[in-house]
Amino acid sequence: MSAVASAHAAAALIDGRFVGDVRALVRDGVIAELLTGTPAQPGDTRLGLIVPGFVNAHSHAFHRLLRGRTHGDGGDFWVWREQMYGAAQALTPESYGALAEHVFTEMRDAGYTAVGEFHYVHHQTSGAPYAGHAMELALADAAVAAGIRLVLLDTCYLRGGVGQELSERQRRFGDGDVHAWLERWHALRGAIMADPGRRALVTVGAAVHSVRAVAPADLAVVGRELPADVPLHVHLSEQAAENEACLDAYGMTPTALLAEHGLLRPSLAAVHATHLTDHDIALLGQSRASIVMCPTTEADLGDGIGPAPELRAAGATLAIGSDQHAVIDPLEEIARLELDQRLRMRRRGIFTPAQLWHAGSAGGARALGLRSGVDAQGLPAAPTEPGLRVGDPFDAVELDPDTARTRGADPLQLPLVARAGDVTATIVAGTLTRKDAA
Amino acid sequence: MSAVASAHAAAALIDGRFVGDVRALVRDGVIAELLTGTPAQPGDTRLGLIVPGFVNAHSHAFHRLLRGRTHGDGGDFWVWREQMYGAAQALTPESYGALAEHVFTEMRDAGYTAVGEFHYVHHQTSGAPYAGHAMELALADAAVAAGIRLVLLDTCYLRGGVGQELSERQRRFGDGDVHAWLERWHALRGAIMADPGRRALVTVGAAVHSVRAVAPADLAVVGRELPADVPLHVHLSEQAAENEACLDAYGMTPTALLAEHGLLRPSLAAVHATHLTDHDIALLGQSRASIVMCPTTEADLGDGIGPAPELRAAGATLAIGSDQHAVIDPLEEIARLELDQRLRMRRRGIFTPAQLWHAGSAGGARALGLRSGVDAQGLPAAPTEPGLRVGDPFDAVELDPDTARTRGADPLQLPLVARAGDVTATIVAGTLTRKDAA
After folding, report:
1. Residue A299 is nearest to which of B106, B304, B339, comparing CB atoms?
2. Which of residues 321-350 of A touch B (CB under 8 A)?
3. B325-334 pLDDT, tens per residue?
4. pTM over the 0.90 mark
5. What secondary structure does DSSP assign to A269-334, as a single string?
């Protein structure tokens, strides 16, 4: 790893297109100036083709343990969930910290420069808290060690299903009640902010696990009491069974339930959003929520193909996540975002290449609250066109446009061509890591 | 590249499972003996984890030119086809030979040890023949140079659509009539067989392009006059529009039309088979045909998800192809074969891992006529379980089970985990190529 004060790139993605001979001047890890059509200067870090770093807006780091271990005997999402609970049982702050450092390093090498960790393995298996946020700080320190930006989405998880207590294996996820979760959330944020080494790369966001795991009254408390600018994530309608249980219990869809209790807002990120009604799509779009699609997970778990283009057209912003980490490859994730829609809609070009770059970078940064400022409507800023921008952190990825795989492609179309193996370097907060030096 | 006389593998896939400490004795590029649970001997080529080489049962090498160049402005299969025709116009034997050597090398490095090239760019743009099979021998020599096994599926392509002449851009594909094609096919086979350097790696198979491009009476001629043991490939029902045109013209589906004219047979390989009726599925299964699924292409072109498990259950044998080469990665192809079905059927484990290995190797070898012998029913041999076998060519791939991506996975589940980047060496006819030495 080496700190970059100034860099020269042969080409860089800026405002939705590639521009040649770009110099970036970097101050405190932030892009202070961007100069185009200009030769390298002495002292510049020399880069090839660079793009904004990919943002992994939905991760459960420990699911990496299940990769290549759950395909032996069929089953469905719910069978897989039991296997996943087994893995969660075994975690300790020490083992999870070591595992997370590996997983975050795999992500960074694959081109993810930021990750939103949807974290709910808070406590000991008995449900008793660890001292001093041990599990959360283990994740924070793993991200710092791996050199990846982390948004720790600390998750409210209070019950085992509609009207059900937490099961024995879910007990370590829960805080007892919503106020206890909020109290712990504020204390955690304070602990991260108090440490300069951590706060340089780590911020704290929030999540409600799902309408299964948080009751309507508690959703309303979160909607009222969590600061409105804090990114708030939720698993939404990944499985048809969730919708059915919600309709049975409350007479409305999970999306409508979130709306009813004040959670639809620009800082909300709905994860999956696979099985939606037209009304759900309209609600999410009107609220200017982010939608985190996790295409490799949604295929792996047989969830289905969500209405991504409809959500975008309605006003939502798309992002991607690797979720259960069957695959950690932002480019495969983005390609699937487009290609699964082609399978669903039987035509090509559902998204433009620029929209795909956007979903992989700016969309995820918006979903994780990583860009300051608001747009003309007072909503969290997310530039329409993807690219490096002055004032953004210098989080970037170098891609090789001349590998056996990428050779001959229009660089703008690389989201449909390249894969993680074509990533040659990553830059996080102005710190460069070359892959061959890893 | 180096010739292997004997090899020791830390683990090898045999009869559908991984076995440790395997020695393979090789004679004339064929596995003469397999010894398990035995240490390496002096002189053995030392290998890690090996599996049968992947077989790419459907390729149009020149489509590689379009990778990353057709995603700019939407469209559908038919718009893409016009772009593809443009690329086909520019080919010469020299340029196509050089291109094909690159593409075949990309395939071999990705883990494909054999390729079925569905070849129809036979003649000059005027339609006049080149002297001495120039285009076909350019492809054969490209395969020899790249060190990949080639089945040249020389293709009968006689008209531009139901009741239509060849268009100006299709003229170089055609031989005028079916008898002229058959005559050229026999001459080509003779020319390949006459050359020891070529026949070591290259065989000649056949194809009828589609029910669009070959009229029913000509299909019947091919069915009667082509030797029944020659692998015969056909594009089948990739697009709904093909089915509609066929139903309009002949009152039956493309599959039924092939059946009616005597083409359904064990040596037939139907490519895509995306939009089928239940009756089509039954016909293909009863005939013991092979089905070549091309998942990355079928996604890229918005074709749809074909009924792969139903075809297998009906009696067909599955294989894979990279077709238009938007992706050249046998492991991504196999993973998609399973994962797209999960999206379609909303559950996991549509195929077992062993079935996926089989589709990637033995199924493709059967579709290309690469295994001698017949099974108990007198049908072309295709072992039920995937793995290395005595008497098969020593075509194999070494995979690294301890990369950032593959670490921790059950080796048997690698089809759902690994990617081409995890291939460390390929062996074709007993000749080893290490990737880092390439």
Report:
1. B339
2. 326, 328-329, 332, 339-340, 342-343, 345-349
3. 999 999 999 9
4. yes
5. EEEE--S--HHHHHHHHHTT-EEEE-HHHHHHTT-----HHHHHHHT-EEEE--BT-S---HHHHH
